[in-house]
Amino acid sequence: MTTPSFRDVELISALLDGQLPQQDVARLQLRIAADPELAAVYQQLSQTRALLRKLPTRRAPRNFTLTPKMAGVKAPAPRSFLLFRFASAFASLLLVLTFAANGLGQLAANAPAAAPAYGMGGGPMTEAMEVPAPAEPRPQSGGGGEIEQPALSAPSDASEDSAAPTEESTHSLAAEPTESVEEIPSAKAGEQDYQSRQMPEAPARKAFRVPGWLQLALLVTALLAGGAAWFINWQAQARFGRKSKK
Amino acid sequence: MNESALIHDAQHGDLDAFNRLVLAYQDALYNTALRILGDEERAADATQEAFISAFRAINSFRGGSFKAWLMRTVTNACYDELRRQKRRPTTPLEPENDDDEEIESPRWLADSSMSPEEKFEVAELEHAIQHCLEALPTDFRAVVVLADVQGMDYAEVAAAVHTPLGTVKSRLARARLRLRECLQDFWELLPAAFRLESEAAP
Q1: Which of A21, A190, B34, B133 is paired with B173 by a 20 to 30 Å CA distance?
Q2: Which 8-state DSSP code applies to residue B19?
Q3: Angle A6-16/A36-53 helices, nearest 10 degrees?
Q4: Is the ipTM of this structure higher than 0.95?
């Protein structure tokens, strides 16, 4: 007979719970049967264990179910809410874009007309546009800035006037072609070609503008869709709140 | 109840599914908290805290025993409550009536199927065991409550208290020894039905 060690107490405790490996069970049972001290420990532990298991089970004093607020859960957004919210945002974006487009169109209309450069480069060609074609065709070899000012000083109306007679003379002289006569049309044609390229008609520019009715429609759409989205979300939250209180 | 399906739904934010799990386990969690804390109000608070924590952390549940996982949340809540309790004044363990007197047989013990004598015996037993449980260190108390009061196996207890299996065995054996010594003092006071009972000898 020996005083049981704590290891023995552990083994007996595990035996009572059926948590002892099978090979140890038979060996321990033999020892308990042979040793009154171990048998006493076994008896005491089994009594204690049985007593603890007799402890009455209480019913929960209330339900511990969670409300959405306790759980930090928000009402799920209905699909229609997402749709209306998107529609409102999209209409608002388009509305802003129409204002931006109108602003840019106005700026472009107010800006001085820029001349097409045709590879001749730079500011001096702007002046060239304001004057008629030169009396003689000139080589189109770049460097617009180098064109002599006096040759370009005639008004554009004059050039138009001079063009008509030139055409007539071309027809009248066509019957008796001479070298000199042949030179004239070609010279005039060159001049016209020059004019048509260097002096395009400057039509009065009209500023681009998004129609007001379209902007109004976008504004109304944005407001209505936004309002509908808010109302749907408010309804969903209220319904969710009522449900969670039940 | 398909527990796996409910857990799956709860992990996807379904509060109704989680609440069905709450209804299934609330008695077990409340009793565990009550035996560890020894106070109804605090046990209820700890149980509620445990369920809130469990819902927020349910995505961390990776399978295994859901009961053990819930028990872990409630033991943690109880440890937190005990730490708070140390910093605050204590309240009586037994409920009080309007005259500030302890209620001998509180209404929660009322059970129409028991005779007055039986109710008295159960109340005596519960009082004795609760007294001895509260004399145990907190870690021992949690293990013995989970194993002997809740009837969980060692693996579940180990998972619940986040402790190795060997430590659970050791703590449980020590806790039972201490409880045995403590209950000896009550032995004569305990009703005959609860005295000298033992399981069949091996």
Answers
A1: B34
A2: H
A3: 50
A4: no
